[in-house]
Amino acid sequence: MTVMQNILITGAAGDVGTRLRKLLKGVYPNIRASDIRVPADLGKDEHFIAADLSDLVQVKKIVAGVEGIVHLGGFSVEGPWETIHKSNIVGCYNLFEAAYRAGVKRVVFASSNHAIGFYRRDQKIGVNVTVRPDSRYGVSKAFGEALGALYADKHGLRVTCIRIGNVNDKPLDKRRLSVWISPEDLVQLVRIGLEHPDLHFEIFYGASDNATGWWDNSNARRFGYSPRSRSEDFREEAMAAQAKLAADPVGERFQGGPYCSDEYDADHNP
């Protein structure tokens, strides 16, 4: 696998972006960081360009001259449609369009488990299932996956979509025992997306080696993914934290958890 010289990380001021900036430093010689605000921990040796993803002119500026993009930028939680649309729909389109026009070779798109959140927890699913988003945020991630497929098939970008579970140093509750991914395992998936020679368009689940996981991640393993972190190592602590949480009958039925129960008023039981 060939290591790129110049990559861009959008959403660089966020939690995941901050972690990846640190972990990818030294792997890729030149990392350009971008966000709508300056990262609080920005180092003197880091190259940062502020940009609003909803402004195509600004996006063209940040993608110029890079070979690969790790696209974490956008609104990272549920919100009003106007906010989601501006940041995650228009912003995502601008990113892919600018990347294509600039001759960028690869894009790793931070999708989310919330694109498939309305599958039940007793269902084991792979990457070829129909999307069942649990929120407007989840809809925007399903859109991003579809957009990535379009730019891969029509324009030849190599695109990897990672349906991220929850990135943290450890799983914080029962649900996250099933969806957790350590920052180090996420780096593995990002590097596959940026470097693997046989990749065209792929979807991976962003999950570590979780014994109670709900996702078949054999597609990622096919490209060499070998997670090193195990959620079971933190089970006792996670379950102790779970005991302090309020019951959520709807959220506890579906993989998306509280994103499913938020605003839920269906009179059926999918």
Characterization of the model:
This protein is an alpha/beta fold. The protein contains nine helices and nine strands. The chain has helices at 15-24, 56-63, 81-102, 136-155, 174-179, 183-195, 218-222, 235-242, 258-261, and strands at 6-10, 30-35, 47-50, 68-71, 106-112, 158-164, 166-167, 180-181, 201-206. The strands form two sheets. Strands 3-2-1-4-5-6-9 form a seven-stranded parallel beta sheet, sandwiched between helices. Strands 7-8 form a two-stranded parallel ribbon. The radius of gyration is 18 Å and the shape is globular. 46% of the residues are buried. The mean pLDDT is 96.
Overall SS class: alpha/beta
CATH topology: Rossmann fold
Number of domains: 1
- Tally of DSSP β-strands: 9
Q: Enumerate the spans where pLDDT stays under 50 for 5 or more consecutive residues.
A: none
Supply database-style keywords.
Rossmann fold; single chain; 36% helix; two-stranded parallel ribbon; 270 residues; 9 helices; alpha/beta; 7-stranded parallel β-sheet; 16% strand
Q: Brief overview, please?
A:
The protein has 270 residues and is an alpha/beta fold. The protein contains 9 helices and 9 strands. Helix 2 (56-63) crosses helix 3 and helix 3 (81-102) runs parallel beside helix 4 (136-155).
